[in-house]
């Protein structure tokens, strides 16, 4: 019994000690996080390079000297702060644009700059909630009829009014038109009552139906779906509408109210008869006048003994010495002429005939008249026969040098005279009917300081350029001072012949569709019709028109 009592007492003491120890441990465990949190709050600055270095106040790292930065708050603290900020943000929903730190819960003025306080935008949470509500409602009715937008449904189907298939709404649809950005004229139209914008009873009228009219059924959304019997469209399911197909020559008159005409900026023009003239502005190129280009050839074989022209571009005068030629053929011709002179003294009749033939031979060989007279006077043969320039100008081509052997057929020189030049202008193919030879032309060369040089069309080339499809027109200009140089570009204005007593319409009134041309004709103050028209030439923002413009 005594041993049992000691065992029970020891067990009770042990249990009491464990209970006390467990309570103490729980208390220590509860106190330790609080201590850590307190320490965490105290040491809220740390070094970015040495995170183990912390402090409860700003300072510098003892290891690297870098400034200590503040630790980010815990998630719970951040949530509490955000809730407090949101609460404060809701209370202070007015702020100064220049000083955002100045806030208020009611409208007023900034105490620093006096600027009116403006209202803050709603929070993202509120916007998200509104969007979610709208999306929920949008998802409920996300199918609608294209012809009757008021008919909506939460599932696919057909419109009970027109039978068209319901289509799904577009979530990225553009917002409705803002009337704030309308022009004053447009606002005036939209402010009018609906009845004033509707056409009158006789505003939309169609010519009387002829006996050839037929009835067809057409889908309003797909006009290419045509049927002879009523039914529905196989594409969209919409009921086919009954239409009367009449002659294409019938005129459709549309009514447009005065307010709508003013909003659209419509203008009218009275079609009258008058004269229509045109001028063609184009670019021309200055070229040599081919009628003034001269070539120098030899008619006898020989060698160049003396050459007086040395380079291309050298200016020469008419009668200037070009070169001297030694030619056995020319020497023999001079000897024959001398013998004819001697024979003339013996037999005048026979001698005169021989002398005439010998002189003609020298002339045909290109010997100058001064050389022949010298031969008659002295009787001495000229071994180096001189040749002179046939015209003034400059050398554009030079093919010989001193000592070269030449023969008939060789081009020795090309001499160009710039007293007159040609201007070749390109004209489009559709403008050639305006122009003819002799029409007035005006040429300007701004680079040379020449303006409005008057001339006329000298020649129109019969063929078109195969690449540019342009017609070439030639104009001849006097260039005595040689200011116009070949190869330069000039502005050319060609004046066409005026055509009188023709119907003219403004070009801005034309509707060019590619297949036909149409204009809108005003039948009365509020009724308009689109009619086809045949147009001719266009000039001065006007076009020659015909057909149904009466």
UniProtKB/TrEMBL annotation:
The keyword Transport applies. Residues 44-71, 93-120, 142-169, 216-243 form the Heavy metal binding domain. Transmembrane segments: none annotated. The lineage of its organism: Bacteria, Pseudomonadati, Pseudomonadota, Gammaproteobacteria, Alteromonadales. It comes from Shewanella phaeophyticola. InterPro entries: Beta-barrel_RND_2 (IPR058792), BSH_CusB (IPR058790), HMBD (IPR045800), MFP_Cation_Efflux (IPR051909). Residues 420-497 form the CusB-like beta-barrel domain. The keyword Ubl conjugation does not apply. PROSITE patterns: PROKAR_LIPOPROTEIN (PS51257). Keywords: Signal, Transport. Residues 295-415 form the CusB-like barrel-sandwich hybrid domain. Residues 1-29 form the signal peptide. This is Efflux RND transporter periplasmic adaptor subunit.
